[in-house]
Amino acid sequence: MVLGGSRSGKSEFAEKIAADTNKRVAYIATASICDEEMAKRVRLHQERRPGNWVTVEEEIDVPGVLGKYGQGDALLLDCVTVWITNLLTDQQSDQKTASIKIEQHILEQAARITEAVEYGADLIVVSSEVGLGLIPEYPLGRIFRDLAGKVNQLLAAKADSVFLLVAGIPMEIKSDRQKKFESSD
Fold it and tell me: Which end of the chain is less congested by CB atoms within 10 angstroms, N or C?
């Protein structure tokens, strides 16, 4: 798992991890292109990726896409917080859906992401760390921030290693060594 703030270098770092696996890489892109600025960001990401990587654009059914890969594959999911935004806005379109139901749905979908590794694939997850900033002014912003924190915790707990990027510098905050050490108590 690779965490970081905006423009921290998290995607580029995750791409290096994926490239180092020497496996077939499937890049799962969750962003939707809604304006020219976002189109430019997506183009920059696309231009960085090796030509032999498979790119799958999926805004909602990320667990379904991940389930199509297995042994010998490296899956790079970029970005979980964009995916959470997509799920929130998708669920918000149904005005009758209560926020507790939305939260439950998103957490269930996030738990399904970790099932991809059960089929033998290496999973590299990119997500924004949004809990270090100000408390959002609007209710939907607070729901998003809280959900992102919960999903990040869920995914980090399942990850073998977790990196936090600050100013392009990766810091390993969880490793296999730590996991082994923690379980020996």
Answer: C
Q: Please report, as a single letter, which amino acid is at residue 87.
A: L
Long-range interactions of 10-13: CB distance < 8 A, separation 24+: 10/126, 10/127, 10/128, 10/165, 11/45, 11/78, 11/79, 11/126, 12/48, 13/163, 13/165, 13/170
Contact 129, 5 (CB under 8 A): yes
Domain residue ranges in the chain: 2-183
- What residues form DSSP beta bridges with 75? 26, 123
Which member of 23, 24, 45, 158 is catalytic? 45
Cβ atoms of 177 and 17 within 8 Å: the answer is no
In Å, how far from its chain's centre is CA 129?
Answer: 11
| Tokens describing residue 51 | 């030509």
Q: With 50 as the cut, is the pLDDT of residue 185 above it? A: no
Is the domain spanning 2-183 CATH 3.40.50.300? The answer is: yes
Predicted confidence band of residue 93 (pLDDT cuts 50, 70, 90): low
Q: Is residue 45 annotated as a catalytic residue, yes or no?
A: yes
* Amino acid 31: pLDDT: 94
